[in-house]
Amino acid sequence: MAREIDIDPNGGDPEVVLTMGHANTGAFAVNLFEADRTTHRQLAQGTARNGAGLPISLGAAASLPNKVLTWDAVVIPVTGSRFSVTLTVLQDGRQVTSFTDFGDVNAGDNVGVLRTGAKLT
Questions:
Q1: pLDDT score at 109
Q2: What SS3 string covers the chain?
Q3: How far apart, in whole angstroms, are the C-alpha atoms of residue 58 and residue 15?
Q4: Confidence (pTM)
Q5: How far apart (Å, rounded) are the C-alpha atoms in residues 121 and 118?
Q6: Is the pLDDT of residue 21 over 70?
Q7: Residues paired with residue 67 on neighbouring β-strands, in sequence order
Q8: Tens digit of pLDDT for each residue in 38-92?
Q9: How far apart are CA 115 and CA 82, in angstroms?
C-alpha cells in the first residue's frame, strides 16, 4: 500500500474528515482494519454534500500503528461527470495529511465509485 498516515502514538486521538468536491452528494463508509488485515470495524457511514463533513474519531493514537484505514464513496455528481473525495487527517488540532482522489462517473450509471485506503504508521 503506497499511502501512509504518520500518527503520533503519544498524541491525542486522531480524526478524519471526508469532503465531497465539485458540488457533489454521496454516501460514504470509513473502516479501520486491524494489522492482520482480516478483521475490521466500521467507524462511520452516512451521506455528505459538497463541503467538509463532521470529524470521525479513529480512537486512541497508541493503538493505531500498522492498522489500515479505508474510505469508500459512492458519488452522484450534480454537475458534469467528474467528482472528488478528500480525506483529511487531524491530530491535536493540526492537519497531519490529506488525500484527494478524483474520479469519473461510470458511463450509463450516473454514479461514481471510489475506494481507497492508507496504512497508519
A1: 66
A2: CCCEECCCCCCCCCEEEEEEECCCEEEEEEEEECCCCCCEEEEEEEEECEEECCCEECCCHHHCCCCEEEEEEEEECCCCCEEEEEEEEEECCEEEEEEEEEEECECCCCEEEEEEEEEEC
A3: 6
A4: 0.86
A5: 9
A6: yes
A7: none
A8: 899 999 998 876 556 779 999 999 999 999 999 998 887 765 667 888 899 999 9
A9: 16
Question: What's the CATH architecture for 4-120?
Answer: Sandwich (2.60)
- 94 has which bridge partners? 91
Beta 82-91 vs 51-52: how paired, if at all? unpaired
* Whether 75 contacts 115, CB under 8 Å: no
Strand order in the sheet with 68-76: 4-5, 112-120, 68-76, 25-33, 40-48
Cβ proximity of 10 and 57 under 8 Å: no
